[in-house]
Amino acid sequence: MEKILVVNPNSTEAVTRGIDEACAPLRIEGGPGIDCVTLKEGPPGIETQEHVEGVVAPMLKLVREKEEDYAAFVIACYSDPGLHALREATKKPVLGISECGILTALTLGQKFGVIAILKQSIPRHLRYVGAMGLADRLSGELPVGLPVVELSDEKKTFGRMVDAGKALRDIHGANVVIMGCAGMARYRKPLQDEIGIPVVEPTQAAVAMAIGRVRLKWSI
After folding, report:
1. Residue 58 lies in a domain
2. 151 and 65 share one domain
3. Domain total for the chain?
4. What is the pLDDT of residue 171?
5. 220 lies in some domain
6. Residue 148 pLDDT grade (very low, low, confident, very high; cuts 50, 70, 90)
7. Distance between CA 69 and CA 3 in Å, rounded?
């Protein structure tokens, strides 16, 4: 059976477990299989541009080592670190969860909002949206204000997500919201129920696209 490798570029195993949970509904009879791994060389959370750039080399090494074993690769970090470098390094499909989350959101609403983890991540995300030529489709981005290692407090995390989601909907005019972090899939449906508009979990969006690429034999 062909397999997809989903890489968590940070070194926090709890995030990888959340990513694995996000992939569970996409594991279907007949495959492809979906494996999730932690980049042990990564920081506890990808929270700065330095972190983003620092994980590119070990991710390239990992993909080159695993190229023969996997039919596609997914970068499970909302900054899509190393996306274009990895695409140069392999002929297999490489998908980033930010790019795929945004593209999925565009099919669900005219204006998308993003719930970031940290305020300091927002300028980095805005640069990416601008580079994609989609700044006019972004309604806004708001943080929950918790570092990755504190996201295990589910009550606090979900409460802040709801507040951010409602503000994006009511103040910024979003009609679809993207969760701007990997490993948060358990909140997607409850958050969607609370705010009443579609919520995209970007790891699921990217893995769903990867499945299509593998099944349809699309190359880059």
Report:
1. yes
2. no
3. 2
4. 98
5. no
6. low
7. 7
Which DSSP state fits 149? G
Peptide bond into 9 cis (omega under 30): no
Residue matched to tokens 């899939």: 185
Name the pLDDT band for 147 (thresholds 50, 70, 90). confident
At CB < 8 A and 24+ separation, what contacts does 84-91 make? 85/56, 85/59, 85/60, 86/59, 86/60, 87/220, 89/60, 89/63, 89/64, 90/63, 90/64, 91/219, 91/220
Prediction pTM value: 0.94
Q: Which two tokens stand for residue 190?
A: 């409850």
Task: Give CA angle at 32 (26, 34), nearest 5°.
Answer: 60
Distance, CA of 126 to CA of 138 (rounded, Å): 9
**% of the chain beyond a pLDDT of 90:** 85
13 & 81 share domain = yes
CATH number, position 46: 3.40.50.12500
What mean pLDDT comes out for the span 133-147? 94
User: 48, 34 in Cβ contact below 8 A?
Assistant: no
- Give the closest residue to 201 by CA, choosing from 217, 216, 172, 181: 181
Give per-residue pLDDT as tens, 15-63.
Answer: 899 999 999 999 999 889 999 999 999 999 888 899 999 999 999 999 9
pLDDT for residue 220 is more than 60: no
Angle 12-41-8 (CA atoms, 0-180°, nearest 5)? Answer: 45
> Domain range for residue 111?
99-202
Residues 103, 14 share a domain = no
Is residue 16 within 8 A of residue 38, CB to CB? The reply is: yes
Please indicate, yes or no, whether residues 109 and 77 belong to a single structural domain of this protein. no
